[in-house]
């Protein structure tokens, strides 16, 4: 684990990022107290992308037709 104080991190930022990308544990500290850790962002898989369920879901043609159970309720609502 490599620990660097904030002041040093400002001057070596690019190098610290490169080291973190290679897998080295890079910790930024203030007055010797660890504050944050540089961690590479994990790449998303294509299956996590928008539209990944295309073709797997269907909607019935009559999905918005009134239900038989609510027929009387709907008639009462129109009368009011």
Please, how many domains? 1
Strand order of the largest sheet: 1-2-3
**Count of strand segments:** 3
Low-confidence stretches: none
Arithmetic mean pLDDT: 84
CATH class: Alpha Beta
Q: CATH fold name, please? A: YefM-like fold
Biggest β-sheet strands, sense, barrel: 3 strands, mixed
Q: Which structural category do the helix and sheet elements fall into?
A: alpha+beta
Indicate the overall shape: elongated
Individual helix count: 3
Cα Rg:
29 Å
Label this structure with key terms.
80 residues, alpha+beta, 3-stranded mixed sheet
Brief summary of the model shown:
The protein contains three helices and three strands; from the N terminus they run βααββα. By secondary structure, it is an alpha+beta fold.
Task: Describe this entry's structure for a reader.
With 80 residues, the protein is of the alpha+beta class. It has a single domain, classed as YefM-like fold (3-Layer(aba) Sandwich). Helices cover 30% and strands 19% of the residues. The chain contains three helices and three strands, in the order E-H-H-E-E-H. It has helices at 6-11, 13-21, 71-79; strands at residues 2-5, 26-30, 33-38. It has a three-stranded mixed β-sheet with strand order 1-2-3. A hairpin with a 2-residue loop joins strand 2 and strand 3. The radius of gyration is 29 Å and the shape is elongated. The chain starts with a strand and ends with a helix.
